[in-house]
What we know:
Layout: E1 5-11, E2 16-21, E3 30-33, E4 45-48, E5 52-58, E6 79-80, E7 83-89, E8 95-100, E9 109-114, E10 121-127, E11 133-136, H1 138-152
Antiparallel strand pairs: 1-2, 1-5, 3-4, 5-10, 6-7, 7-8, 7-11, 8-9, 9-10
Amino acid sequence: MPVKNGVVAHYQDGRILKGITHDFSPTRPTFRLRSSDDPGGTAGTLIRSGELKALFFVRNLEGDPLRTDLRGFIAGPTETVHGKKIAVRFSDGELFCGYTLGYTPQRGGFFMFPADAGSNNLRVFVVTAAAPEVCEGTAADELVQRVLNAKAA
């Protein structure tokens, strides 16, 4: 039986689509996104992974519009069961912090787990081409501090 995942697809051009996928694979160039109202009935929308900024695997598709996600690592450990500390700055300026077991710059993408355990995001597949700045370990802390300082100025 296929696994169904609630996902939010963030495109590099700013579009956002929400739905369910049964066939996402980081090694395939496309997957199908179906409406949560019709998870098995239609063919769904064909998503080209290379057009995405990231694919967010979520607890629920509604999220909590009143919740503010924590920024940075909140003095988090350098390494957890989810891997090494990593900070990603996307082309649109968004900063995302978490942990990864599999970042390799030469790959088309990688999974990461959010640093904010209370986030609606369970894990995120980051498209490497949409992230001009990816830092691990202490360099991740430095990137976060630089971005937060720039926003405060």
